[in-house]
């Protein structure tokens, strides 16, 4: 059932996002791993359509935040407003209190606002005027940033990037897929008519089942070999953190679950590491242009456990 439902969702959404099956699958793996996703891509390639599609097909609440230089933490989290009739302050929740949030152009918001958002992502709760409010379950943030535009942006520091389970790009559609888009026009309006394939309870049950996927000693050692190879690499100033190690495990468990297994194999890690590892590393300046090649070389040189 688990494998078929993932395939069913990918197949269904690919009619709205032609040629983007890989991006849809990676987004779902991140979601079911209880992580968050960073999409670095050019405008107009389907990031908003992807977020709406995932929310609708999973039957979850959806909110959107547009990153701007004047965006305040209270615009995201919410604010306490004084109620004259009750003579007390009432909390008015912000868009962060949705299940799925698209934060468009996160690097256009100031570091203070980024910090408030990323704290909510990490803690799954927010504190306003001394009161703590739990965020809804499940909770999933899709943040986007434009890799080309630098003017008026505040790049996410490495410590903040580490909070995203995966960093992906959607990329241009193939020529054939784009031809179909041109002939058929935008299908975003039809997204709102999608009937959910899962209930909220079923989603939370799947997320709980994924945590029970078995990690053998050999797999744990294989992951640690990769982690320590990044920490000792001559190309890097800083390797993977412990949060990075846990991210590899979480995503590998989810991939194994959706392939019908209750245990991780090395192929789960090799399939997903290009999206989990590179954005967490601090490269020496002279090697910045060779990130993917260096990460691939590090991982490929680690012996696969038998």
UniProtKB/TrEMBL annotation:
<dbReference type="InterPro" id="IPR011703">
    <property type="entry name" value="ATPase_AAA-3"/>
</dbReference>
<comment type="similarity">
    <text>Belongs to the MoxR family.</text>
</comment>
<dbReference type="GO" id="GO:0005524">
    <property type="term" value="F:ATP binding"/>
</dbReference>
<protein>
    <submittedName>
        <fullName>ATPase, AAA family</fullName>
    </submittedName>
</protein>
<dbReference type="Pfam" id="PF07726">
    <property type="entry name" value="AAA_3"/>
</dbReference>
<feature type="domain" description="ATPase AAA-3">
    <location>
        <begin position="36"/>
        <end position="166"/>
    </location>
</feature>
<feature type="domain" description="ChlI/MoxR AAA lid">
    <location>
        <begin position="229"/>
        <end position="295"/>
    </location>
</feature>
<dbReference type="Pfam" id="PF17863">
    <property type="entry name" value="AAA_lid_2"/>
</dbReference>
<dbReference type="GO" id="GO:0016887">
    <property type="term" value="F:ATP hydrolysis activity"/>
</dbReference>
<keyword id="KW-0067">ATP-binding</keyword>
<dbReference type="InterPro" id="IPR027417">
    <property type="entry name" value="P-loop_NTPase"/>
</dbReference>
<dbReference type="InterPro" id="IPR050764">
    <property type="entry name" value="CbbQ/NirQ/NorQ/GpvN"/>
</dbReference>
<keyword id="KW-0547">Nucleotide-binding</keyword>
<dbReference type="InterPro" id="IPR041628">
    <property type="entry name" value="ChlI/MoxR_AAA_lid"/>
</dbReference>
